[in-house]
Design brief:
Length: 464
Amino acid sequence: MLPSYVLLDLETTGATPLKDRITEIALIKYEGGQEVSRWQTLVNPEVQISGFIQQLTGINNEMVAHAPTFKQIAGELLDYLKDTVLCAHNVRFDHGFLKNEFKRIGIDLRQKVLCTVKLSRKLYPQHRSHGLDAIIARHELVCESRHRAMGDVEMMVGFLQSASQELGSVAVRNAAESLLKGSKSLPSHIDAHLIDDLPETPGVYLFYGDTSLPLYIGKSINIRERVLSHFSSDHASTKEMRISQEIKHIEWIETAGEFSALLLESKLVKERQPIYNRQLRRERQLCSWRVSEDHTQMPLVSLVQVDEIEPANMGQLFGTFRSKRQATEVLRAIGEQHQLCQKVLGLESGKGACFAHQLKRCKGVCADKEPAELHYLRLRQAMTAHQLKTWPYKGKIGIHETQRFNSKSALHVFEHWVYLGSVEDESELDDIANTKSGLVFDLDTYKLLLKELNKPKVKIIEFE
């Protein structure tokens, strides 16, 4: 598959690298397509193994009581990993645990990695599932010790052998090399060590050039993978190419999940105004339509600027527009589609019937041929599809988000679609929950929150 690689699997006390520990390691090393060594060992995690994990892996506390600690086997493991590519099924998991274990003993692990889940997706895009159980079933592999380290490594061996027989060894090698391409195409002015430090967790990253102002701010559920994609040799746009050429320094902030990253990205872009982030910049001309409370108020609709938008009255507004011109074009189109009077809508001036009525495209409220009350009801019905959502809660809410991979947790607090802030510690909650600062509407926050609230498993806390 590759000139030199190690297929590796770990068993652990849990799923969080920062607090859980390794209980077993197994690997098979390949050079020039041939197996050259295999190694496995139980590891004393120096913490108790839960009953659930014991049942899942078959590894209990008695089995590891006299096993070596990670520190005792670290040197031998490094010898196997030296100058190779670390391959694992969901390598983010295994690599994360290894980095944290080595970090505990003062060693900074820098390792090229390849995920066999991604390799399976690349080789077999027609299949939806690429977990190890799905691959075992699909390739009719026989596993005698599932969820034990060497047993799972042997299943990866079986997968690669089966794929080579079905698709050819050249296709497997090309797919593997393609997945590794990102780390090989770094510009010469980017420190490879900095890239090695990038976490494979959700968060926000900031690209800098020669000044303290960021060139670009982005977010991802996997910071490392997304940053590397910016340095791909097949840039999707001129902007991507220019960004990669101008970068001199990279910073990142890990978050509790994707929603945290989205909120932070939006906030930082508006605060720092990076030159390559155009979409999320604050739009000073943002506006919306407000329909009058009854049919006697003329015109029936009026334009509300962003500074006049009151989040508590969102349900009275229709549409969000980046400019007055865009708002007018949309309202005119709605009027034409539903045969509404452009004059009563405030889009046409003058005396007498509107021009559309002369073309039989207005039902004649302006010529006393349609009751004003009926026209008003038709207007409200036509605008319903553009109506902004009324805040569905009595007051403030918190959305709880956790990330097991980096043990981060956050509670995001909102009121009337306005983001009040986030806390990681309950001791900070009272300050933010009791804030009475002025509520300022932000379109990007509104859209992000609306989407998040529609998710089936979102954790919402309502404050009294």
